[in-house]
Amino acid sequence: MRKILIVGSLNIDFISNVFDFPKVGETIRATDFHISPGGKGANQAVAAAKLGGHVEMIGKVGGDKYGDVLIESLTKEGVRTQNIKKEGDTGRTFINVDRKGDNTITYVPGANEKITKKDINAWLPELRESSYLLLQQEIQEEIVEYILDLASDLNGCEVILNAAPARFINDKIIQGVHTLIVNEVELEYLSKDCVREEQSLISRVNYLLDKGIKKIIITLGAKGAVFANGSEYKHIPALTVSATDTTGAGDTFIGAYAVAKSEGLNDIEAIKFAVKASAIAVTKYGVQSAIPTRKELEEFTKEISSLNR
Questions:
Q1: Along the 309 residues of the chain, how does pLDDT read in single tens digits?
Q2: Which of 230, 238, 279, 287 has the most other CB atoms within 10 Å of its CB?
Q3: Given 98, 171, 193, 251, the catalytic residue
């Protein structure tokens, strides 16, 4: 099995369940509250590991109790963590989840912004032995760019960038990415300066493909996902489930996609695999705890198959 390396964020999540999101200036009462391990990088690592991948996580946590919690949560799920370093304060994420399962997220980067080029150089052996490299944008832009510079010299390492949270991506980063994964909001943000607001999703995708990205996957929530590579545009529908909490759907999708690719599936089949995994995740509360295991996914697949006969 080919190795999946995630270089990215590790945060502790403070999650409040609310009836509706507060309006500007409004104070509301939460119906529930809990703390759990998170961060887009860590979530994607857990997703890949729970679904059967050979996974290593690289990043930084604080030298506080939350840092220990994050490392322990990854280790428990089978993620290699020996190259996670401690510095400063652990990153924090504040999440509101409303009655429909939708969410708003605010994050404080903390130790995630302490990653340096020197750290990346020290982690180069792990990069060299990896077949898939997953990156997100909860670490500094210059570090993402530096990693891509190093990865460009490695034959056979496919770079997957989840451009979240949405921010400007320079052309150098774009040209180093094999597969870009975004949601509709992130896609609009990345193309806002050159594509009129009323133009179609395909126009926005074409703009980014013309910039040099090889493949783009757009996650559409309840509408599924779209794959594009310039010669092929394919819509993969979602599965109908009763959503409880959508917070971890995107990270589950990305981790699942990486696992499927590492097992030799083509892009469309890998996306179908990821759609099923994220469909299970949204039926549960939480993020890492909601990510299905490979056994759960296989049972879900059998259930779907029997219903479609």
A1: 699 999 999 999 999 999 999 999 999 999 999 999 999 999 999 999 999 999 999 999 999 999 999 999 999 999 999 999 999 999 999 989 898 888 888 989 999 999 999 999 999 899 889 999 999 999 999 999 999 888 887 777 899 999 998 888 888 888 889 999 999 889 988 887 665 554 588 888 888 898 889 999 999 988 999 999 989 999 999 998 888 888 889 999 999 999 999 999 999 999 999 999 999 999 988 889 999 999 999 999 888 876 665
A2: 287
A3: 251
Sheet strand arrangement including 215-219: 84-86, 54-61, 3-7, 132-135, 158-162, 179-183, 215-219, 225-228, 233-236
CB 189 within 8 A of CB 208: no
Tokens of 161: 């960038």
DSSP letter string over 128-185? HT-SEEEE-SSS-HHHHHHHHHHHTTSTT-EEEEE--S-----HHHHHT-SEEEEEHH
Max CA distance (Å), the chain:
56
Cβ-contact 32, 64 below 8 angstroms: no
* 153 tagged catalytic: no
